[in-house]
Structures
1.
Amino acid sequence: MFCSSLTFVASANPILYQGAEPVFIDSEPETWNMSPRALERAMDAARQEGKLPKAVVVVNLYGQSAKMDEILAICGRYGVPVVEDAAESLGSTYKGKKSGTFGKFGIYSFNGNKIITTSGGGNACLR
Ligand SMILES: Cc1ncc(COP(=O)(O)O)c(C=O)c1O
């Protein structure tokens, strides 16, 4: 599975827990989040190897969204679902739409260090 490179380890650990291999996609300078160009290159290479990822885990770090329209377009072209880790972006928006509502799944965290906390726990929303 593909995953953002600039993130907390909790974005990559579930990939390992499933026995899969995280492939880290580099950030771009405007949002610090997943680079659509790097994603496109990695997708192309993966397709040539006949090993497209099962999903792409995009992280929206520090309240700032990745360029979701570009990322969704790329993933759509390759038929790969997007999981959006919005643990650090609850309440923020991208082009007027709430972070965590773009991918197939949106993940929020209510851990003690988050914007809203229940002292622990989190939530996954299937779209
Ligand atoms: C980007 C990111 N993803 C996932 C998590 C994990 O959230 P939780 O501790 O609720 O499992 C965190 C929490 O620190 C995070 O910052």
2.
Amino acid sequence: MRDIIINGVKIRPGQNIQLDINIARLPTHTLIDLPVFIYRSKVDGPVLLVSGGLHGDEINGIDAVKRMITDNMLKPKRGTVVAIPLINVYGFLSTSRTFPDGRDLNRSFPGSKKGSLASQIAHILTNEILPNIDMGIDFHTGGRMLSNYPQVRADFKDEKSVALAKAFGAPFIINSGLIDKSFRKEAYKKGKPILVYEGGESMRLDELVVKEAIEGTQRLMHHLQMKDQVHEPRESIVMAASTWERAKVSGIFNPTVQYGEKVKKGQMLAKITDPYGRVKVPVKSPYDGFVICLNNLPVVNAGDALIHIGKVE
Ligand SMILES: [Zn+2]
């Protein structure tokens, strides 16, 4: 069996351990750790990364990974699960997507030992985690007030990722290219597909999103023969293209659809009004599809992203 070595610690077959990787110190000199949970079966098999909180204000994924740890769902019957519930401790503490200097960890890969804080943590993930894993699922949410219906993003040019996305079985699978300097792209370059799960919005817990994250992970583990079947497979709705409907005028945004809802071409999705009843501008769907993300802000400016529609072929 291959060696799994993280932070200088060799993980033996049959071993379940928590490692705390020292990251840095806060200005108070409080030590910041990156806790990593490793569950290794005695039987050889794939190594799956399950991670959340790469953006520190995206809480749904953190909660999902935590629940899978506490409910003992990640111990595989073969292979290994590497679980990191919270990657960006700094962002979590300051309820921010980024690091204190404004850097986005997901634009900092592969990172460097002497770079910014985000770059240093990217370096740890690149050198301690990526060499040990075969594939992964990384949990994200939409931005502030932008609520994604549970979906897995994969680059449709990469067949391995698409197959894993189908096994995960989220309600939606959306085509999404690799972003430069992202964790997903860095892993892809090393031949390791990482799925990005998007669900709900930052700084808001969404039970449906957490439940879908947990069930999808269990399906993925079953697909990888790491676990007996817990949930029935599900055929995701696959969408190769998507567009944002933006506000044509500023005003009060009144959506008449919910996230996840099926919509028809030309259907009225929302209206934008002014506070005095003089303005009423409809927002219509450009094609048949599904609402994959909805802006929950009640007041918008012209140009704001309102509704993200996934296109059904
Ligand atoms: Zn994110």
